[in-house]
Amino acid sequence: MAFRWIGKSEDGKTVTLRRLEDCQLAIPEYATPAWLEQNADLVRMGAVLDVETTGLNHANDQVIEIGLRQFKFNKNTGEVLGLGKSYSEFQDPGRPLSPEIIALTGITDEMLAGKKIDWDEVGKLLHECVLVIAHNARFDRPFIDRKANISKEKIWACSVKQIDWSVKGFFSSKLELLNIYHGFFTDSHRAINDVDALLYLLSHTDPATNKPYLAELTSNAKRLMTQVIASAAPFDSKEHLKSRGYSWDNTNRFWSKTIFKDDVPSEINWLEEIVYIGPFGGITRDIALADGFKN
């Protein structure tokens, strides 16, 4: 699909952006309290979640801010039917922030002083949801799993990996750019702002399916995933693997990639043809739905 930029003028010379205030979603007219009660079998509760942290290391870095918002959705259509409870709070990490984190997030040591996240409250909110969504869940989930045990039992969805943005005409999956391409902006790298921006983004309609992006995400969240491990891959295949989306595990010394289970046969064919030049020399490992995007 050709590149899309919602909000561009007809002559293509200007783009109009508007600031997203709170989380103003277009709720379907049919989603009245009576309808929600009468069609409870179609209604599900999800949560969008985002964290800001002291760094990228899941073992040593800490959460300094969390944003979480529940929402009701139609399990058949992916339409957002209403908002639920929300939670936003800072956490004092007990040590000064790095200049890089302060510059990235706008969060300062003074803002964090004495603040504490109520992880019991976070757990209660997640317990009420069937799905937890994050933009790059592989980053957010391990931090939450470490603090809220219920998170380990939940199905997580990733709006980076489980929505094909390129097919829709968007050549970057960065949240800030997707927001701009859809005609709005918010103060990025603040947890609740990113949560509201993501939920608003997911409520947009995909012109190819005439359904919200959320429909694709919830559908893919129910598809089984498999980790393909290209062990003992020839060294000179490194660039092929990187361009295909494989990541290097420096501890276990192998290349790996997580894909949908039904795509495994075609992926093995590619590995045999391009990497191994012969029979597949690696292994595959199926991932339970509740284990997706874990550390």
Features of this protein?
single chain, 295 residues, alpha/beta, Nucleotidyltransferase, domain 5, five-stranded mixed sheet, four-stranded antiparallel sheet, 10 helices, 13 strands
Order of helices and strands: EHEEEHHHEHEHEHEEHEHEEHE
CATH level 1 name of the largest domain: Alpha Beta
Number of strands: 13
Structural class: alpha/beta
Strand line-up across the major sheet: 4-3-2-5-6
Percentage of residues in strands: 15-25%
**Gross CATH architecture of the largest domain:** 2-Layer Sandwich
Q: Write down the domain tally.
A: 2
Taken from the alpha-carbon principal axes, the silhouette is: globular
Overall radius of gyration: 20 Å
Measured distance between first and last alpha carbons: 34 Å
Helix coverage percent of residues? Answer: 25-40%
Structure, explained:
The structure is a single chain. With 295 residues, this protein is of the alpha/beta class. It folds into 2 domains: 18-221, Ribonuclease H-like superfamily/Ribonuclease H (Nucleotidyltransferase, domain 5, 2-Layer Sandwich), CATH 3.30.420.10; 225-291. 28% of the residues lie in helices and 24% in strands. The chain has helices at residues 33-38, 99-105, 109-112, 119-127, 137-147, 175-181, 191-202, 213-221, 238-243, 264-275, and strands spanning 18-19, 43-53, 63-74, 80-90, 131-134, 155-158, 184-185, 205-206, 211-212, 225-230, 247-249, 254-260, 283-287. A 5-stranded mixed sheet has the order 4-3-2-5-6, with helices on both faces.
